[in-house]
Design a protein that fits this description.
The protein starts with a strand and ends with a helix. It is of the alpha/beta class. The protein contains 15 helices and 13 strands. The longest helix is centred in the C-terminal third of the chain and has 18 residues. The strands form 2 sheets. It has a 7-stranded parallel sheet with strand order 3-2-1-4-5-6-7, with helices on both faces. Strands 10-9-8-11-12-13 form a 6-stranded parallel sheet, with helices on both faces. The chain has 2 domains: about 180 residues, Rossmann fold, CATH 3.40.50; about 180 residues, Rossmann fold (3-Layer(aba) Sandwich), CATH 3.40.50. The chain is elongated and about 65 Å long. Helices cover about 40% and strands about 15% of the residues. One of its GO terms (molecular function) is glycosyltransferase activity. This is Glycosyl transferase. InterPro entries: Glyco_trans_1 (IPR001296), Glyco_trans_4-like_N (IPR028098). Keywords: Transferase.
Length: about 375
């Protein structure tokens, strides 16, 4: 079996990591993989020898030529299936390229952004099958009219091993310039509006008077960086909240956090939450999209209504006040990740879909 994977993201964020896990797992099972990605994309080096990498110009939704370039690649490589892993034009133009070449096509849907029913009816004709990374996203598609027999959930996974080690607390504090007695809340997300950084800033502004040892680290990069820096400064929180940037060595340090906050407005599943649970960190996140599947309420963390700063503040206060509860939730989260979010299960789920699609096509 030969699969052409299309991933249009340039940076090695959560979605791209999932694609790499799938490619590596498929290669270990004897599947041939070809990866189409943008020029100089981080994932190109991440997949190592598990795939033949073909770098293409990918200009997003407006890049009509992407369909022609992908069709050329499909004709050259002759894959059994084209698997589209992202949006940014790869979904539409990749679907059209597969249709033009008569190649079976699978789409992975990683976000729960709503689409109009007419868009779903038109666009999803391009795909033989749709894989969602959470049940929440699958329900959104069903509500928008996608046929149940055409979609299934295969949850994202996490390689727990890099996060299972104990973190040297003193080294963690030194690495990020924090006082030894600090209680540290982290947020691991792109600096974009829907992730909800502004809610955490508002909550911290309320909490700082009663928790002078509270410190917050924002991990990630994105277009909101300057805006967030200004908001933090205007709120007088420059000594409390720090933008720590994108860290390739995050597995080394993630377990040093006392709490992970992720008050997103919408999210497909939240790979950073799975990683935090693997590291034994309790989580506060929104009851939105697939997030309730990543975090079990009152077991591995606390769920709050999206955009509810008062609820976020109250939940932070609850965990800040109770080190025993933080430890209990962190241990429960790690056990849950090891039991329910394995890479092997995700790879086998994708492989089962490929076999189903090929059988239906009579291949």
């Amino acid at each position: 079996m030969k699969i052409l994977h299309v991933e249009a993201g340039k940076f090695y964020y959560g979605g791209a990591r999932q694609v790499a896990y799938i490619i590596e797992g498929l290669a270990a099972r004897g599947v041939q993989n070809v990866l189409a990605c943008p020029i100089d994309a981080d994932i190109a080096s991440a997949v190592g020898n598990a795939a033949k990498v073909c770098e293409l110009r990918m200009g997003g939704d407006a890049d009509v030529g992407m369909a022609w370039r992908l069709a050329q690649l499909i004709r050259a490589e002759q894959p059994d299936i084209v698997h589209l892993h992202s949006r940014r034009g790869a979904d539409t133009w990749g679907g059209l390229a597969a249709r033009w070449t008569g190649t079976p096509c699978v789409l992975s849907r990683r976000v729960d952004n709503p689409e109009a029913r007419w868009q779903v009816a038109l666009k999803y004709r391009l795909y033989d099958y749709v894989i969602t990374i959470s049940e929440g996203i699958r329900r959104v598609l069903l509500d928008e009219g996608l046929a149940p027999q055409k979609v299934t959930c295969v949850r994202s996974a996490v390689d727990a091993q890099p996060y299972l080690h104990a973190v040297d607390r003193a080294a963690f504090m030194h690495e990020f310039g924090l006082p030894p007695q600090a209680i540290v809340v982290g947020m691991v997300a792109q600096l974009i509006p829907r992730k909800g950084h502004r809610y955490l800033i508002e909550a911290v502004a309320v909490l700082r008077e009663h928790y002078p040892d509270l410190r917050v680290l924002f991990f990630g990069r994105g277009p909101l960086q300057s805006e967030l820096e200004n908001e933090i400064a205007q709120a007088g929180l420059a000594d409390v909240i720090r933008l720590a940037g994108f860290r390739n060595d995050l597995p080394q340090w993630l377990g040093g956090l006392d709490i992970l906050a992720h008050p997103a407005d919408m999210e497909g599943l939240g790979v950073s939450l799975l990683q935090a649970s693997a590291a034994g960190v309790p989580i506060i996140t929104s009851r939105a999209g697939g997030l309730p599947e990543a975090v079990a309420d009152n077991v591995s963390g606390l769920l709050i209504p999206p955009g509810d700063v008062a609820a976020l503040t109250q939940s932070l206060r609850r965990l800040l006040d109770d080190a025993g509860l933080r430890r209990q939730m962190g241990e429960a989260g790690r056990a849950r990740i090891l039991a329910e979010f394995s890479i092997d299960a995700m790879v086998e789920g994708n492989l089962a879909v490929y076999r189903q699609v090929l059988a239906k096509r009579g291949r």
